[in-house]
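Field: COMPLEX_INPUT
Field: COMPONENT_COUNT = two
Field: RESIDUE_TOTAL = 398
Field: MODE = joint
Values follow.
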Amino acid sequence: MNCRYVQSRLSAYMDFELSGAEQQQIRSHLEECIECSCEFESLRRTKQLLRQMPIVKPHTGPEQVLLRVRHSAPVAPRHAFGIRWHAPRFWQYAGGLALAAAIIFWGRSETPESTPLTTASPLMTPTTPSSPLFPAVAPELSTMYRPYPSMLLRRTSYPMYEPSLMPSVSYSGDSILGYQPISDWSGVTPQPKFIETPR
Amino acid sequence: MTHTAVAQSMDDRLQREFDELVYRHYQQAYNLAYRLTGNAADAEDLVQEAFLRAYRFFDRYDRSMPFMNWFSRILTNLYIDEYRRRGRLRTISIDEVYSGDEGEEGTTMDLPDTAPDPLERALSNEYLHAIHEGLQHLSPEFRVAVVLADLEGHSYEEIAEITRTSIGTVRSRIHRGRKQLRDHIKKRHPNLFERGDLK
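Field: COMPLEX_OUTPUT
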């Protein structure tokens, strides 16, 4: 263990951030090497000086921060339905899920009871078994829930998972659903569907 | 309970929790910001902006992580990226002559060497100013690492988590930061490092 190696580890040694064996090796070296010992002492003194720095009191209190937080534009406005633009993700999706459930139940209530489930309704065309996106694992289900092409529904913005310096999220489309159809599809009302798009 | 009432209740709960955290940690946050920015005006701006961002992303705050660790990540990221990009970092030349509180340019505050331990005199404003000024000479990454370790008392692992770097990087930044700081202080106040066995 040479001096160069020891001196590169002195701060970590001082902070007890090395393994036990390495701590012991460096301690043994410091007992023998005056140069490394002096280097260690000066670094230790630097740390002591830093730890004596007093706590600085701010001129303004936390009320100033809270005041600014309350008046921050992207958060403060509340939507007419009681949902914030930056509300938790569950509430962003709640509206969409409720709408989807309503459309599905409405569609089923229109279907005559005598109609078997495997018969396609006028609104729902059976998916071809050769579809590469939706293989016919359960054809009876695919006739009921025909998936739409992924291009029809696209998220207009994406929630961020970690605090970062990215601009704040704002929905240019439907602020409740968080997505909007970018085109109509032969007169069929597009059903909400959440599509994982690589970011 | 209606949907709006549920959303309102959740918003109020998060709001109260956030308010409490601001009140509890504002002093510590300001102190961290002050040591990073080096002056009160920038520190207040930085703290307010950091709390604003914390509020925007508060629904994604992992409660298993101490709030100050999470908040320090926001604040230090904001400081390094935003302030550097804006060029608002107050940089001081390493050769700049220290200006004392009396406004006399070019003076160095050498106190009579009568105290048994110079460290005991480190509480004087001149020494504190020298240490504080020395911090401002460090690069933002080194300064963040040194401040989090020696002023805030974080472990290397916590600093790695806050700055999203490896422990090896943290170890290197702290060590190099301390050495640069030591050289700066030693150049202006060598008596702080003079003590018997020290050079």
